[in-house]
């Protein structure tokens, strides 16, 4: 697993500017007795080697099966940009091997692409806290899932709900990631903050539309799971 991480880390991490359409996510799972050492090593590594066009945006995963891990987000404007990347040099790689990796139990990595056509918020319009719903369509049903998400976009926009949608790219099973960005904090999760989704959906598309929407989801979806993430400014690049 560490070899896979090394392959992903020796290349430049990518700018997380607003026009970043391609996003690389690395999740670090620190050893149970190395959390303090991991945070120190990750902070030093990010702020020394991942500045300018190579910034890290770091989140802690608070809930779900990956709770307790740290998520490093990196961006690039295009695949061509990734094609032309170089390396971050010997000093970077030595720090990675000597200081950061020894504190890590395992890692996971994936590429995702930002889908502006499905999102109700711009890629770079982040929030301090967010919830992610990972949606896995059945084989042959990805377009159906995409249409379901597209119909939700209008509902999100009408109720001023900020949702960024990403699609997995050559990173395991077909997957859409719906990132609910809580601009007003976790109070957005309170039942009274917005009207129920059924009521909002039917208001946009007519009575009974939500039930048809849910039937479509049941037909197209293999599985789904959720998690909450919090931004960690202290560990992120400056």
Low-pLDDT segments, ≥5 res: 1-18
The largest sheet is: 8 strands, antiparallel, barrel
- Number of E strands: 8
Strand line-up across the major sheet: 1-3-2-8-5-7-6-4
Helix content: 25-40%
- The CATH architecture of the largest domain can be given as 2-Layer Sandwich
Order of helices and strands: HEHEEHHEEHEEHHE
Mean pLDDT: 90
**Termini, distance in Å?**
28 Å
Structural class: alpha+beta
Can you identify the CATH class of the largest domain? Alpha Beta
Helix count from the secondary structure assignment: 7
- What's the CATH topology name of the largest domain? Alpha-Beta Plaits
Note the beta-strand portion.
Answer: 25-35%
Total domain count: 2
What is Rg?
Answer: 19 Å
Name the shape in a single word: elongated
What attributes characterize this protein structure?
238 residues, alpha+beta, Alpha-Beta Plaits
Descriptive overview:
The protein has 238 residues and is α+β, with helices and mostly antiparallel strands. It folds into 2 domains: 113 residues, Alpha-Beta Plaits, CATH 3.30.70; 100 residues, Alpha-Beta Plaits (2-Layer Sandwich), CATH 3.30.70. It is built from 7 helices and 8 strands. A hairpin with an 8-residue loop joins strand 2 and strand 3. The longest helix is centred in the middle third of the chain and has 17 residues. It is elongated, with a radius of gyration of 19 Å.
């Amino acid at each position: 697993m560490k070899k896979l991480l090394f392959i992903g880390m020796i290349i430049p991490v990518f700018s997380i500017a607003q026009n970043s359409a391609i996003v690389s996510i690395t999740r670090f799972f620190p050893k149970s007795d190395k959390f303090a050492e991991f945070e120190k090593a990750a902070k030093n590594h990010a702020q020394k080697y991942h500045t300018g066009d190579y910034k890290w945006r770091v989140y802690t995963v608070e809930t779900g099966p990956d709770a307790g891990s740290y998520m490093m987000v990196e961006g690039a404007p295009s695949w061509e940009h990734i094609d032309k990347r170089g390396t971050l040099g010997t000093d970077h790689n030595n720090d990675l091997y000597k200081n950061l990796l020894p504190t890590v139990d395992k890692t996971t990595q994936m590429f995702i692409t930002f889908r502006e056509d499905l999102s109700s918020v711009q890629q770079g319009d982040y929030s301090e806290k967010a919830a992610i719903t990972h949606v896995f369509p059945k084989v042959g049903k990805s377009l159906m899932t995409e249409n379901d998400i597209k119909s939700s976009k209008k509902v999100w926009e009408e109720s001023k709900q900020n949702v960024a949608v990403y699609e997995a790219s050559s990173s395991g099973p077909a997957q859409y990631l719906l990132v609910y960005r809580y601009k007003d904090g976790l109070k957005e999760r309170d039942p009274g903050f917005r009207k129920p989704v059924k009521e909002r959906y039917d208001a946009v598309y007519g009575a009974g539309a939500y039930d048809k929407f849910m039937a479509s989801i049941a037909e197209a979806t293999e599985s789904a799971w959720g998690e909450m993430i919090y931004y960690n400014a202290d560990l992120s690049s400056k």
